[in-house]
Request: fold
Amino acid sequence: MSETISGGHLVAKALKAEGVEVIYTLCGGHIIDIYDGCVDEGIEVIDVRHEQVAAHAADGYARITGKPGCAVVTAGPGTTDAVTGVANAFRAESPMLLIGGQGALSQHKMGSLQDLPHVDMMAPITKFAATVPGTERVADIVSMAFRECYHGAPGPSFLEIPRDVLDAKVPLEKARIPEAGRYRASTRQAGDPEAIERLADLLAHAEKPAILLGSQVWTCRATDAATDFVRSLNVPAYMNGSGRGTLAPGDPHHFQLSRRYAFTEADLIIIVGTPFDFRMGYGKRLSPTATVVQIDLDYRTVGKNRDIDLGIVGDAGLILSAAAQAASGRIGDAAAKRKAWLEELRTVETQAYEKRLPRQHSDARPIDPYRLVHEINEFLTEDTIYIGDGGDIVTFSGQVVQPKSPGHWMDPGPLGTLGVGTAFAMAAKQARRDKEVLCLFGDGAFSLTGWDFETMVRFDLPFIGVIGNNSSMNQIRYGQAAKYGEDRARVGNTLGDIRYGEFAKLLGGHGEEVRDPSEIRPALERARESGKPSLINVWVDPDVYAPGTMNQTMYK
Reply:
């Protein structure tokens, strides 16, 4: 008799071929054969308390490792619970596969348990969404879904697999099982050579260039190329999203607080791996007289919302390396002449830093949020992965916290999803146990998915969680007060005074309550030394808002 294999085991073989080492899941009767296959293939199964967390963790795993993440959820509400995580990965260009269960094909349209049109719902927020029609095609279509994750800019895929397709067994020789390394080609595009030559000429003649290194610099693992580019051509660099950490704080080409000034005064602005979305004022925050170059993995992003002078589609690392090499032979002494430009920006940078410094050292009670994020920034090491999950408090941190190494900054991305923190911490620590993980939460953000703190305890995934607790959804509260007056400022946005440090202890972790700013650093140290998942609940001033919140820049 010929050897047979089930659909669930074919899923596991396909995941193994892709290099997936862990799946994030919440159990359901539709999907248990996948678990059985994962056990045989040596793939770890981390079961969470909410499917949104499973999807966010798969997204986070992809960002940390550079390999696609995978979440497996049951049909119906299991899949709909994961929609937010998939949508977040879609906007953040993160490659992950969500596998959802489905009722048996033999019960199609009969009203089976948890039956919903999953593919129709997922199609707008994925790069690929499909039903697996038969057991012999399971591994083939899983591999196809992974391949589609990397078409252009990365993103998520979705597959639903009916229960009878997963449970059925077929002769092994009839199942198509793509071989590892032989069903996906390199996606690294070097860019149009003529466009790179034009960029080299622009760089050779620019007097005041500036570059923004966005998330795709990390997606492409292009940090070395970006560093060589800015140093060899003497170009000041700004970073956002996952591009933060490309240059270490203190690097002479690392700038943060002078970006608006630079983008107003520069004669050449190079935008790498960042769309002209709300974070960039839809391109309106760039000088109308500057020459603007945009480099992106996705052709559809280049020139969207704002006219550009030059667009180059491809891998950030290959393009920056080629442009630096092409410019090096024609730049002459132009790079040296940019010393005055860098000094001008450094003066603006220093003034902005010194203006804010008293707030960062404030001894006020309740605690000034600037003091909290300052203490966190001082606490980070080169091996600390920093995660931001919140509204107003994370807006503060974006101005102050500077990761010390590439790939050590995580935030939701442009969807602005609250609740990613616990899942990202879970994925980051599981994938990189050699790293310290610190997550700053807003109290509202933590409340959304905080029960999975227990998952961190259960799987022994220590991390340092810090909650900036103002008992409010403060970013929204400020907008309501500004628009409708103080008497209506607290409608629908005020939370209870929750002692989250006690919550952490309840679930088996380390927890503390901090009300005095002098206690922040000692509490951080104790959390680090505890070796447990930790929550430091820091009571911050509810009547102090981040500048970005007060300017409502997210809506402009």
